[in-house]
Design brief:
Length: 164
């Protein structure tokens, strides 16, 4: 069994619009501001030593929007590949993107245009249909950007779902 802590086990600190992040010592509460740009792209987990000699770990979150872990079943149509249809499981979602897995989707490429359909696991089983563009293809996961025409997406059912 793997005893390595997952990133979700570390306290998170979000990057602010000025590219700084605030680190807070869990022992004494002392806060220190760091320039987050120094860690963008290669190091998100930091080991920090406070002036009170407490050593703690923190995860720097660079995402602009909250992303919620899920296990939502649905389907997608790949319009870039003659409309092929496959089942999927959405692993995480935000109002601007999602990550899914699919054992049927073996030939998805960067830039493919898809339509995804799924139901939220909320009390209404809200049906969602979104057009997305594939932005990353990794073994076992496909990352997509949701095509939105306005900021109204933040206030709809998906925005409410992600924020709770």
């Amino acid at each position: 069994m793997n005893d390595t802590p997952q990133e979700s086990e570390f306290p998170k600190t979000h990057v602010r619009p000025d590219n700084t992040s605030v680190l807070t010592c869990p022992h004494c509460g002392l806060q220190r501001v760091i320039m987050a740009d120094l860690y963008r792209g290669y190091k998100h987990k930091l080991k920090v030593k406070c002036s009170c000699n407490t050593i703690f770990k923190v995860f720097i979150e660079f995402r602009k929007r909250v992303r919620k872990n899920t296990c939502l079943r649905g389907t997608f149509i790949n319009h870039s590949q003659k409309g092929s249809t496959c089942d999927l499981v959405i692993r995480d979602i935000s109002v601007i993107g999602l990550t899914f897995t699919s054992i049927e989707a073996t030939n998805i490429k960067l830039g493919d245009e898809l339509s995804v359909e799924f139901k939220l696991d909320d009390e209404h089983q809200t049906a969602i249909k979104k057009d997305v563009i594939v932005r990353s293809v990794r073994p076992g996961a496909v990352g997509c950007e949701i095509e939105t025409s306005s900021d109204l997406a933040f206030y709809g059912p998906l925005g409410y779902y992600v924020s709770r």
